[in-house]
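Today's session is about reading a structure prediction critically. Students often jump straight to the picture, but the first step is always the sequence itself: look for stretches that repeat, for charged clusters, for runs of hydrophobic residues. Only then move on to the predicted structure, which in these notes is written as discrete structure tokens rather than atom positions. Here is the chain we will use throughout the hour.
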Amino acid sequence: MIWNVGQEHQTLIEMVDWVRRLALPWFDLFERRYELRERLFRMEIPYVELDTALELVLAEFGEIEGSRFIAECVMADERVGPLVRNASVNIRGYRGVVEIGAGIVKNVAAICSCYGFMV
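Below is the predicted structure for this chain, in token form.
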């Protein structure tokens, strides 16, 4: 967004508003770790999909919480859980690099595979 500022004053106002509404509250969450964890587990952070939430849980809280996230938020979901399970079975048959970026379900399965989480 910064590269698209141009000369218009309104664009600058909109950019400052975006930072105040979205970016600052996002960064503030990292200072309130308990709230961050709870909101990640409830999938209540705007623009954070399941795969990114899993990555954030792992990065901020470690593998034990990552394993809990998989159990509570991924596998407990009647729609997503079976899809991740099927994708994980397919990944186990791969030889070589597991590709990240092929969709949320495959990303979650790839992360589970990298961490050795059984799904």
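Discussion point for the tutorial: The longest helix spans residues 9-29.
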